[in-house]
Design a protein that fits this description.
The structure is a homodimer. By secondary structure, chain A is mainly alpha-helical. Chain A has one domain: Arc Repressor Mutant, subunit A. Chain A is 65% helix and 8% strand. Chain A is built from six helices and three strands. The first copy, chain A, has a three-stranded antiparallel beta sheet. The structure holds a DNA duplex.
DNA sequence: TATTGTTATACTCTATAACTATA
DNA sequence: TATAGTTATAGAGTATAACAATA
């Protein structure tokens, strides 16, 4: 839609921005994955699932987990099965709908997640310690603006 | 190292920033992957390898590709094999070292990559079109600062 | 009929480590 | 010995689609 009228000069800028953001994210993510594995013998999706439950003490249904983790349902089943087998989460019946479960942390899961989250926070803080608190704030706000617009305009089917 | 003296309030900010950046990156990345598959029947690592070669017309050695793509050597061999089989890249002997190759785009690979890169740029531009050029610039600069510091301080082994 | 969740499957990407050939 | 690259393997992560049970 009227791409021509914009002039060309800003396009490569967006591209450079994206490449930098992608590289940086991969760098941090790679370190987080490796630390999670080394120190806790776990993975990022498993950590992510537990983090979602930590924020929702009453538990979440499978389809809510699926949406929040941005993966399809079958995968959530698999990750949940592993965590159940280790006694870190549990499936609770939902009264009034016998198809659905709520998944929630067990006490042991909550305790272990507390340790992991504490360390994780340290890795992240050190990743961003090159920025002042004001810069962290500015970055957070700018990314929020991108995300906001992006979610409002989900698919550019015309291209 | 002296985490206590920093005060606690800024830590959750860095964490929130990271979660937002990770989510946004995954969102864009997921769309790029899906478009690359739908329109060009290719994948992000393959696109990435070709992009590296586009920037280096004389080609790159396998270990240089490995470093730039941030994956181990065996994987580069596999991706390169696929692209060679499709006639998009070629292995060229390095005079003076019979162990090494340079990998470079074929004319057909260069042409196809041109099309892909053009579309890809469109997806990225639309992902960031919620920002003004000045904001794009600011974001780029802030991320550069993070990356710079991060690379100078590679591993927080103490935590 | 639609929805919730599971199962089965296949494929890509990845790291690790053993290996070959050359330096 | 060290380096460049390959091969073999195993595992994580993912999507798709068929399926069962319930709404």
């Amino acid at each position: 839609m009227d791409m021509e009228a914009r002039g060309h000069s800003e396009h490569p800028q967006a591209l450079r921005l994206w490449l930098r953001m992608l590289t940086l994210t991969q760098l941090v993510e790679k370190q987080v994955r490796s630390q999670l594995r080394e120190r806790f013998e776990t993975t990022l999706p498993r950590f992510d699932l537990m983090a979602q439950l930590e924020r929702n003490p009453d538990g979440l249904k499978m389809n809510e987990l699926s949406r929040r983790m941005m993966v399809t349902g079958g995968n959530v089943t698999g990750i949940t099965d592993q965590l159940v087998a280790e006694g870190l989460v549990e499936r609770v019946e939902v009264s009034g709908d016998r198809r659905a479960y709520r998944v929630r942390l067990t006490p042991r899961g909550r305790s272990l997640f507390g340790e992991m989250a504490h360390q994780h926070e340290g890795w992240i803080v050190s990743a961003f310690e090159g920025l002042s608190p004001e810069e962290v704030q500015a970055l957070h706000q700018l990314l929020g603006k991108v995300k906001q617009h992006y979610k409002d305009t989900p698919l550019e089917t015309a291209a």
